[in-house]
Amino acid sequence: FMPGYLIHLAIVQNYINQKVVKDESSFIKGAILPDLLKRQGIDSHFGSSKSPNFKMFFKQYSNQTDFEKGYFIHLIADYLFYNNVVKSWSKDIYKDYNILSTYLINKYNFSIPKELWEVVKFDVGELKVLTVQDVDDFIYSVSSKPFSYYYKLFG
After folding, report:
1. Alpha-carbon gap, residue 97 to 1, rounded angstroms
2. With contact defined as beta carbons under 8 Å apart, do 9 and 108 qualify?
3. In degrees, to the nearest 5, what angle opens at C-alpha 88 toward C-alphas 87 and 89?
4. pTM of this prediction exceeds 0.85
5. What is the rounded CA–CA span in Å between residue 120 and residue 45?
6. Could you report the per-residue pLDDT of 117-144, keeping only the tens digit for each?
7. CA-angle at 29, arms to 50 and 40, nearest 5°
8. CB-side exposure of 12: number of CA atoms within 13 Å?
9. Distance CA 104, CA 132 (A)
10. Are 44 and 53 in contact (CB under 8 A)?
11. How many angstroms separate the CA atoms of 47 and 15, rounded?
């Protein structure tokens, strides 16, 4: 399991707000592509979300373009989410993503890319696996560090 699409987009929006990417559209596409490909059965995470093979990623991508930076930050977010946020597996996490949808869009002020219109869902109810505070803390934690921090850590 990994962060939902909108958690990824909130992280991306924070980076965009910091003015650290030039091509926002490519950055967003890079950040959502791994999960769109995974839905099609394509191994797009360079191994598992729990432990992506970053060496393989860097062999394939130079990490110079905004698309590649978006892809990289997606893998970083998956790794950190899997290993630091979610303590135990429950399919309720998917309902939590749906419940958080409206909150995330409003708080982080982004729109849903056309490619995600059919996959992002909205719901109401009580969160069972995640908390709003944990999600906000995670988004802030990931997006408050410069790309260079993650390159040093995982590169």
Report:
1. 12
2. yes
3. 135
4. yes
5. 20
6. 999 999 999 999 999 999 999 999 999 9
7. 60
8. 33
9. 9
10. no
11. 25
pLDDT score recorded for residue 49: 72
Whole-angstrom distance, CA of residue 99 vs CA of residue 135: 12
Taking Cα atoms as reference points, which of 27, 29, 33 lies closest to residue 45? Answer: 33
| Per-residue H/E/C for the chain | CCCCHHHHHHHHHHHHHCCCCCCHHHHHHHHHHHHHHHHCCCCCCCECCCCECHHHHHHHCCCCCHHHHHHHHHHHHHHHHHHHHCCCCCCHHHHHHHHHHHHHHHHHCCCCCHHHCCCCCCCCCCCCCCCHHHHHHHHHHHHCCCHHHHHHHHC
- Per the CB < 8 A criterion, the answer to whether 110 and 13 are in contact is yes
Using the structure block, give the residue that is written with the tokens 């802030």. 140
50 phi, psi to nearest 5 deg: -70, -35
Query: What pLDDT is stored for residue 1 in this prediction?
Result: 59
Locate 76 and state its tokens: 């970083």
| Cα angle value 119/93/145 (rounded, 5°) | 85
| Other beta carbons within 10 Å of 83 | 11
